[in-house]
Amino acid sequence: GVELGKLLAQTGYITYDPGFVNTGSASSAITYIDGDAGILRYRGYPIEQLAQRSNFIEVSYLLIYGELPTPQQLEDFTSKINRHTLLHEDLKRFFDGFPRDAHPMPVLSSAVSALSTFYQDSLDPADRSNVELSTIRLLAKVPTIAAYAYKKSIGQPFLYPDNSLGLIENFLRMTFGLPAEPYEIDPAMAKALDLLFILHADHEQNCSTSTVRLVGSSEANLFASISAGIMALFGPLHGGANSAVLEMLEGIKADGGDVDKFVNRVKNKEAGVRLMGFGHRVYKNYDPRAKIIKETADEILSKIAGGDQLLDIAKRLEERALSDDYFVERKLYPNVDFYTGLIYRAMGFPTKYFTVLFALGRLPGWIAHWREMMQDPATKIGRPRQIYTGEKQRDYKPLSER
Ligand code: ACO
């Protein structure tokens, strides 16, 4: 495939592939997906095993460095991240400039982009030690930035990180805690969030990861590339789907819980009406991540919130869709986001914030891809071609003759 690609490039032949449905943009050793069989593996390890037996920090290490860490490597990695969780006091002032009702995704992206102004050692992508430091800084600081984006939106003071806590626990405390009150971490909630982050940690050449790679291919630094990836994830067809699912379920609830009526609107292709959380470019089978989440959603929701009416609507909707020819013929199954919003809501996160949680989970995957691309001697600046459909050559007319 690689040789054929090179040969075609020499002939000037252009492949027309809108949406890159059939274009391999990179060779990668990070994540394996078999969409027909519903298989997902990180560095060869099945997602089911990682979900059950690993944790997010370990999975982050695995994705970025290629192997599961030894106990010593894990300890070093964790303590390095703990040392970098603080934000520069001047960066904290950025949050004052955003409107209080700002969507947290652009806030997150702007703050991550600004990291390259505070850490100018990141600007030389060829310097590996700086890449290493940028990696740790991102893993450590993005949860702090995300927590502050939330605090800003509700007008509460920012909490400094408490580095005696784990990454997830620290993030929960900075998000939901108050300075004068002790914050008791709910272990079920921390475990559930850790699981969701593992499931979101990488998914090969999706829209945001491809964006990180494309921006990085110009040798833009890690902060700049990931800031762009966050904005790609913002869209409702990608990371924004988890919020959209909840809005859809709320809409069905407000309409008396009539699942049939909603499914008919989808089938009639009413403008803007899709079954959110269903369908995937690669999976033409049940998304294995959705399967894991569905299995745990009941358990998690009963532990956290004592059940949820919307979960019942979601289950009925799924059952209805999976037995309908429209969805069967198009191989539309629930994707990772069908159930995640319900869990995030039960944890107390507002709907707007769900996509930020997706970004926190996806961060190690973005970093792993950027680093893999930079180390690959075959990497070139990303520069697709086009099929020109505009006017043939014509002559300029002065304004008075038009
Ligand atoms: N509801 C209803 N119909 C759908 C849906 C859906 N969710 N998804 C696809 N279809 C239909 C399309 O209308 C099309 O039918 P047609 O041929 O009759 O026109 C057919 O299925 C193929 O759809 P495409 O849009 O060509 O599929 P594509 O691979 O481009 O899109 C996508 C994939 C964007 C995920 C799509 O399925 C979708 O919009 N889903 C809802 C949003 C969503 O859940 N996004 C999360 C994706 S996963 C993630 O980012 C974590």
TrEMBL record:
CDD domains: EcCS_like. GO terms for biological process: tricarboxylic acid cycle. The active site is at H280, D337. One of its GO terms (molecular function) is citrate synthase activity. InterPro entries: Citrate_synth-like_lrg_a-sub, Citrate_synth-like_sm_a-sub, Citrate_synthase, Citrate_synthase_AS, Citrate_synthase_bac-typ, Citrate_synthase_sf, Citrate_synthase_typ-I. Coiled coil: none annotated. Keywords: Transferase, Tricarboxylic acid cycle. PANTHER family: CITRATE SYNTHASE. This is Citrate synthase.
